[in-house]
């Protein structure tokens, strides 16, 4: 009887939230608007006829009703040569009302950004809007352009990668070009290569184009791939008349998850309509049959969903066993490493092989019998990390695959032993280089702190900044799970032999549903490293992706200045000036060049200053003002993108913490290598 009540409650919950689930729309892959004023199109004066027509066209958007296919063709005015024309197009998955709202905002902002040009185009994440003094409907246009690259290059199977990429894009091009007058769009997947088992892509044309023009527009874009981004595993390209995208993960929604297109409507007096009505008994009998079939199917499907949720709930409630018959257990078992093997690899966990200690135990260097070097994290019995938490960390780390993340190789559970096995990173962590900590690779040499920092010329530091940005972007946007790291700092950035950065220690990572990543959450378990913690997290326990953005900004400034945000002050030294306040003061006083690490004797000063600017944008006091990592990646990759003016950074000192939260935070202060367990939320 208890089971029946539980099932009934679950069904009631599902039926209650079905409308909201259907209305939900996830799109976290945002970029700042890109305004393009086409100077070659000529200019107009403020009081000209064209100015009045253009303003009238933009004003008319407020009275429009949303259209089902996200495409708008507009014009205003009667004067020959002074008429204003416009075209707008939304991405396939954008809802109708959201589409129209995006277009209205884009149009208003475009005429403000391009107040005198007769031709202009703007791309927002969700829509495109362009206007002209010439007819643009039905005419292919391929300039200006906007492109994004993931910054990740294919390292093997290059020829096969190129072949499969073009094969997928060509297939999508043909489908999109063959689309009707309402929509010319295609999305789909194709076979991948080793390391990237599946490729995904989309192709989109404005539906006013002919099939040939749509085809030619996309071909024009495909031909530019080798010139800018050959071998890139992720790219997006926009033209006024078409766009396409290629990724190694599914970025699009399935048609079944989107707003349905309206049914084709025949005129009431059309012979076809009359004949169909006669055949179906005036149209009513067919509808009744459809309803009689569909409704039971929907109810059965909902019941099945309820039953699955109940079974999953009962399973979770009964306790998460580390071993079992489900897919996750099989996946975990495939990573299992024998304890005796790890003892042999680490010389029985010899103190001489110990690399460091953290909040949950020690990390050892090991070597498998085949010669592979590994890092072994042996958790202490008093760490509080149980079987479920341990398994969660395994599942989390093993499913994250990115060149800028430390890779999990395996794990071990035997008796009280809980051990994780990672790839071994030879050059230790970033703080060893920029803050002068002694570390094994250089301990055998007589190397000064300055000489260690000189190993990091600007090219290396810029590569580190870009690599960490890509790693965070993967965690926030591109991975199978959406993850907030919550403890990003210099000691958690490991450097491989080529000085490529790898983000480590996901001890504070928080796993979220796709539609929850940008939402602020609260926790009473505030843990991390002062100097890197965003103020809203350190003081109130509020965190979001912007928490990681703040930490990234601190890291960027540390890399450029060669100073740590915690250096030079103690907990009780309220008058000490920390790194952020010093850099901000120099920024305001126009002496920003003085903050650059003296060992940086080469490198583009404009590029260095741009990175400081980006760092200051990331550490702004207001979380809402900080950019997303997607925007940060764009700022780093596009020197033509105009950076906004940063506002005051947050200066959070331990001594400045409110008294009502200090007691809960003080016991959680950690050394540079401390970590905590991963936390997972259901999808």
UniProtKB/TrEMBL annotation:
The keyword ATP-binding applies. This is Uncharacterized protein. Residues 262-283 are annotated as: Disordered. One of its GO terms (molecular function) is ATP binding. Keywords: ATP-binding, Glycoprotein, Kinase, Membrane, Nucleotide-binding, Phosphoprotein, Receptor, Repeat, Serine/threonine-protein kinase, Signal, Transferase, Transmembrane, Transmembrane helix. Its main location: membrane. Gene3D superfamilies: Gnk2 domain, C-X8-C-X2-C motif, Phosphorylase Kinase, domain 1, Transferase(Phosphotransferase) domain 1. Residues 349-642 form the Protein kinase domain. The chain crosses the membrane at residues 289-311. Residues 32-136, 142-251 form the Gnk2-homologous domain. Residues 1-24 form the signal peptide. GO terms for cellular component: plasma membrane. It is a single-pass membrane protein. Pfam families: PK_Tyr_Ser-Thr (PF07714), Stress-antifung (PF01657). One of its GO terms (biological process) is response to abscisic acid. It catalyses: L-threonyl-[protein] + ATP = O-phospho-L-threonyl-[protein] + ADP + H(+); L-seryl-[protein] + ATP = O-phospho-L-seryl-[protein] + ADP + H(+). InterPro entries: GNK2, GNK2_sf, Kinase-like_dom_sf, Prot_kinase_dom, Protein_kinase_ATP_BS, Ser-Thr/Tyr_kinase_cat_dom, Ser/Thr_kinase_AS. ATP binds at residue 377. The lineage of its organism: Eukaryota, Viridiplantae, Streptophyta, Embryophyta, Tracheophyta. It is found in: Membrane.
């Amino acid at each position: 009887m208890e089971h029946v009540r539980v099932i009934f409650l679950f069904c009631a919950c599902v039926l209650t939230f079905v409308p909201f689930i259907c209305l939900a729309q996830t799109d976290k892959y945002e970029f700042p608007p890109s305004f393009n004023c086409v100077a070659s199109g000529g200019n107009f004066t403020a009081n000209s006829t064209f100015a009045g027509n253009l303003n009238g066209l933009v004003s008319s958007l407020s009275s429009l009703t949303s259209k089902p296919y996200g495409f708008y063709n507009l014009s205003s005015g009667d004067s020959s040569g002074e008429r204003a024309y416009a075209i707008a197009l939304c991405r396939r998955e954008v809802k109708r009302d959201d589409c129209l709202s995006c277009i209205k905002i884009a149009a208003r902002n475009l005429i403000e950004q391009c107040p005198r040009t007769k031709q202009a185009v703007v791309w927002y994440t969700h829509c495109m809007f362009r206007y002209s003094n010439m007819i643009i409907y039905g005419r292919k246009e391929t300039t200006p352009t906007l492109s994004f690259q993931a910054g990740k290059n294919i390292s093997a199977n290059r020829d096969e990668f190129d072949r499969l990429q073009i094969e997928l894009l060509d297939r999508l091009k043909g489908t999109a070009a063959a689309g009707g007058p309402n929509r010319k769009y295609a999305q789909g997947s194709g076979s991948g290569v080793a390391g990237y088992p599946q490729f995904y892509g989309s192709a989109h044309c404005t539906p006013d184009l002919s099939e040939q023009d749509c085809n030619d527009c996309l071909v024009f874009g495909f031909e530019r791939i080798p010139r800018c981004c050959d071998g890139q595993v992720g790219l997006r390209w926009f033209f006024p008349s078409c766009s396409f995208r290629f990724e190694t993960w599914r970025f699009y929604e399935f048609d079944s998850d989107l707003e349905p297109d309206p049914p084709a409507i025949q005129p009431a007096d059309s012979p076809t309509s009359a004949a169909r009505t006669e055949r179906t008994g005036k149209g009513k009998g067919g509808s009744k049959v459809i309803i009689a079939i569909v409704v039971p199917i929907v109810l059965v499907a909902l019941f099945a969903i309820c039953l699955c949720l109940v079974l999953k709930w009962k399973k979770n409630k009964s306790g998460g066993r580390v071993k079992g018959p489900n897919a996750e257990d099989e996946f975990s078992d495939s990573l299992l490493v024998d304890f005796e093997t790890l003892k042999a690899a680490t010389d029985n966990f010899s103190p001489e092989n110990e690399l460091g200690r953290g909040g949950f135990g020690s990390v050892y260097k090991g070597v498998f019998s085949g010669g592979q070097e590994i890092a072994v994290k042996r958790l202490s019995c008093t760490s509080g990390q149980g079987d479920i938490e341990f398994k969660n960390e395994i599942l989390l780390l093993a499913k994250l695959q990115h060149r800028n993340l430390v890779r999990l190789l395996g794990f071990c559970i035997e008796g009280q032993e809980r051990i994780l096995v990672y790839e071994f990173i030879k050059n230790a962590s970033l703080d060893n280089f920029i803050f002068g900590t002694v570390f094994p690779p250089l301990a055998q040499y007589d190397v000064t702190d300055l000489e260690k920092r000189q190993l990091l010329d600007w090219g290396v530091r810029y590569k580190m900044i870009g690599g960490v940005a890509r790693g965070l972007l993967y965690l926030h946007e591109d991975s199978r799970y959406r993850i907030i790291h919550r403890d990003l700092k210099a000691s958690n950035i490991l450097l491989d032999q080529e000085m490529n950065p790898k983000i480590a220690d996901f001890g504070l990572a928080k796993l979220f549903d796709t539609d929850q990543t940008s939402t602020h959450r609260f926790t009473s378990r505030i843990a991390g490293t002062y100097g890197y913690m965003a103020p809203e997290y350190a003081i109130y326990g509020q965190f979001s992706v912007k928490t990681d953005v703040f930490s990234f900004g601190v890291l960027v400034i540390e890399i450029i200045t060669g100073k740590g945000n915690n250096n030079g002050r103690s907990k009780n030294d309220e008058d000490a000036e920390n790194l952020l306040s010093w850099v901000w003061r120099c920024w305001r006083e126009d002496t920003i060049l003085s903050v650059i690490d003296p060992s940086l004797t080469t490198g583009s000063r404009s590029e260095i200053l741009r990175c400081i600017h980006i760092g200051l944008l990331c550490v702004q006091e207001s979380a809402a003002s900080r950019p997303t990592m997607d925007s940060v990646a764009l700022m780093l990759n596009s020197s033509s993108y105009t950076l906004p003016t940063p506002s005051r950074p947050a200066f959070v000192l331990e001594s400045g913490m409110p008294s009502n939260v200090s007691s809960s935070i003080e016991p959680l202060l950690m050394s540079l290598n401390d970590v905590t367990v991963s936390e997972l939320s259901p999808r």
